[in-house]
Amino acid sequence: MSDSEASDSEKSSSTRPSEPPSSPESNEIEAKIEDSSVPVDDVLNPTEGSILFQPHRTIGLISTSQPFTLSNGTSHLDRFITMPLQERFVIYKCDTIKPVLVSDCLQGTRKQTNEEKIGISSAGERLHYAVSESSLGITVATHGYKGRWSASHASLYKRTKVIDFKNIVKNSSWGIVNVVNLGKSKFPVEVEKDNDDDTFDDSDEEMEEKGEVRMENSLVLAFICAKNSFETMSEEEEIVGDDSDDSDSESDDDMSSEESESDDESTEETNYNGEVVIVVASRRKIIIQKRIPLSSVATFTPSIAIHPHTYLNKILIGGNNGEMILLNIRSGKVIHRFLCLQNEDDSKITAIEQSPAVDTVAIGTRSGMVHLVNIRMDVKLFTLNHKVSKSTRNKGKAEITSLSFRTDALALEHGIAPMAVGQMNGNISVWDLTPKSNDDDSDDEFTSNKDGRRTLLCQMDAAHRGGVAELKYLPQEPLLLSSGIKSNSLIMHIFDNPNHTGRILKQRVGHVAPPTVIQYQHSSNGTVLASMSDGTDAASCQVLSCGGKGDNSLRVFSTARSVLDREYGQGKGLEKRAKELGLEGGKADLLLKPITAMASCEAKTREWGDLVTIHQDHAIAYVWSTKKKSQSGPVLRQEEWNVSAMKAQPPKTAHATAVAMSSCGNFAVVGTKGGVIYKYNVQSGMPRGSFPRDATDSKKGKKGEKMAGNINRTTKMLERTFKVHKLHNEKEKDSSVLEAQAIMKSKLQMARHIDAAVVGLAVDALNKTLVSAGSDGKLILWSFATHAPHRKSPIHLSAPATKLVHARDSNLLAIALEDYSVVLFDCSSLNVVRKFSTEGSSTRHNGPISDVAFGPDGRNLYTASLDGTVRVWDVPTNTCVDWMTFASAPTALTLSTTGEFLATAHQGRLGISLWCDRSFFQTVHLNGAEPPSKPFQMDEPAAVAEDEDESAIVKRAASDKNKFLSSSFTKTIEKGSADDNDEAVVPKSEGLITLSGLPAAHWKNLFHLELVKERNKPTEAPKKPVSAPFFLQWRAGESMGATEPSTQNETSKIAKNDDEEWEAAWVDDDGQEKSAPQREEKRKNGEENDEEMPVSANFDKPTKKTKIKHFRSDLATLLEKCSSSNDYELVTEHLASMGPSAIDVAFSSLCHGMHDLDEGLHLLHLCSKWLLQACSSRRSYEVINAYLHRFLHIHSTTIAGVDDSTDKDLLDRPEHEDALRLELLHTIKQLKETHDASTASLKNKMQETLCLLRHFSRMV
Is the whole model's pTM more than 0.70, yes or no? Predict the structure, then answer.
């Protein structure tokens, strides 16, 4: 495909959002949308933001199965990693593993969008790779529709917002399998924003001279694309002719490709399986520079690639069949096909990593082999084998997923060369690649393949559940950062032990399975008034979360600070015990079963446990301490139940299904599958009877022992209270007692859950009444003291109950039923007072109700359903006031203590979503007469960015509103390309101070530039290494073996051909066989041209350097240009695009001292006028102050000399120079006064704010 045609096809693809493969149904619906006669609402059902709630943040979501990328830096203190996180990416700071930047949501990630309405299986998109460049402030992310086998599009982010995107692959059978960062390079960038042409031709140099094109640093990436060989092609696809691989018919293929890309119903058929797409990303747009089809190796399917060190314009690509090729991206030719791995098992190459030694790379395969290969000589040095036991469970677990080399000084001091290997089984192996013995006597060192020569330093078993997704040694530090495929964790290991083993230094861990039960810690306490912003009570900002199937952990997540996140301990030494028992699952096999329900009470938090949990298919309940963050209380069980798993277990009818705690914190009640409710003392764990009483009456106690629930004792007490035992004779007493017992027995038989599970329990605030709801449709009230049922019990419900929630302040019960309705029961009047989501109502749920919760004041009721919605009900008016729908169905919800935040857990999502109630900070009008007729689509909140200030959080939350995506996204992208993406911050009123929004490193380093220069100054000249790299045993210049004299000439010819072949890996030519003298002679004669090079590729020809209009610097040229209009805004923009060192050079070039005043005095005056105008505008306050500091630091001596010499040697200077000196001094004086005024104003405002904050804090 020619570059112009590729640009046209790319331009057409960039004007519409990414789409999945089209279908007849989708085309039909799209035709309806384009038809103006059909309302869009009838087709796509657009939605707006919720009435009450807006997205706030997501907690507990750390990582996904996608690998992260590591940014450059001098130490872990200034390094960052970019982690794809579903439809967003998060940038973590390496020193604290805290998120510092969270991107906006990818466009089109809602389930109830046009994709679902038109029957397309895709439900949103997800990121696959994300590469950030901190110096440019951009991130390039590849993404594709969920359910697609690989990424298909690339988006350009300016900090958190998408500013451009491109369709990279040709059709649905192609995908992006890897991204290679080729570094930064200068490219011509068009200044005019409305020009959509993405190509660069010879006219760019002329445009550059006219000022329409400028050179700008850009990020260069190589997208490795492959064809999915397992996907069957549809019958409707258009088959291109067999001559598509012929180079002579390249233009014809490009035309057919362009037509097929413009038509959604047709795709292009190619006879090769790989392609490399070179992409250039600037601060404004992303451009496809060139496409390199791997047609010369048609059977090669790429899987992964790297850019080897010192190999200019070369990338090393590994394939699915175990092959490797070296590609010159400048000429687009495969310059070598490696043969050293052909005798292996031909398994897929899954990982490639550059070693500290030049020409040597480590290659990991699917079969668990790691090969060290010298790519310059095409020789395999040695192999490391990672074996796993052959079983169905371990199938595919030996695959190598990631490799990394350690390069710190500590390893060199100990004489080791560590290499970390991550596998699909979750193990991390650290090898010492230093040979154990001297191999000088080996006859054939290249072919030696002895694993015993390399030592396994340590192996971290099951470091990540589901496999290791990515691991990286931080450069020059003994720190290993790793993430898991299914572990939802980011762990930093440090290797500082004498035996070279690692230990966990820092980690961020979340659930490995979607949480099923969540609850704000002590959310029932309505007296604590705390919010996330003021941090009055940390407990009010903590959410207890229980993992689902496969995750048996109990965790607490802080909604304010992630450092408070903890996993509740279930015992000491579990990992060691699991190793002793030989459990393959490790610690997870010794944990308790998944938690199905929990109850808490804060009254006795300081004395004993305050949290009780019940577990799946388990009869025993466990007591936890939220203070100790562990299971530190007794186990709640009946005396005849065995704790040991080796003995007889309780019957299945005793398995716990519901739990509740009394308001005093002394008792816990546990409902079972058989309908019996057991009562326990939380402090001692002793049983205290049951509901009904006869469930434990058969147990005979000691003589004289008083047992709770003994009916004989209770009857005697009642008789003595009412004195009925003295009114009758013995016979009448016996008959009356028998009659009373018979009535009581019949009542007891009715007031119980017979062979029906107890689904909900509640205890009132005074510990007088216990309420139970069962799957048999009965609601029973019990006396908490006597264990007797209420005289009106049981109360029959309209359908079996599934959930029960109690509001203690109002003594109301919300009971979810199997018919998708909710009833409100008043425990005081013993009547059903409200019915929600009834049959025939427009606000009825369409699926089972998964959770119910009351607001703090009891006036609002929140219901979550598996139909994917959450409804908010106003209890007094019995109306639905809000109706929200989500991309995945909510399984649990909970309200904060003050009701400010709603937390929800969803199917298939590891994180917990927080939603902010906007009625707390703005006026919200609820129309009870007209309930919502359509659900409001809610976006998934972003992850926590903890280094943001409060205003940035509010601004991000306000911009993350729920808006329906339609074709207007195209206009947004076009507008983003036309408008300036660096939007200037405009103050709300004149005179307000604004900040620039530039990275802190841009202006902070100007204050310490001398220190930086001194630190970067080399201490000594570079020295030649004493010995060869540690695992290269071959020595140049020595014969590999004895050769016959008659064959020496042939050997020399072969060596000469090999040298010429490998010379291509070191020279940056276009593959033409020209000698150096011939090329030099042609350059002198002007005969050599670039006809064979693509005109749009920046790699093909040297870029013409920008002509400096002024002999000093570009800054001097801009000052001269802006002085005519007296508008120096361009100067500020120009310096904002430069680095600290370049700014220092630009300021220094204005004037070189007192001897340079003839020409430098005028430039100093212009620069001072620019600074005066910038300070007066009070915009970009911190950057302008940094520029002023640097300007005065460089030229303060010269300005002081001008002031001292104004009254001297007047006769030796011309009059215009005297006037210019006076103008400079006058401008400097004005600059000082303006700066002092703005500084004083800022100090006064800050002082007033601090005084107000101090005053308000004392009031609290």
Answer: no
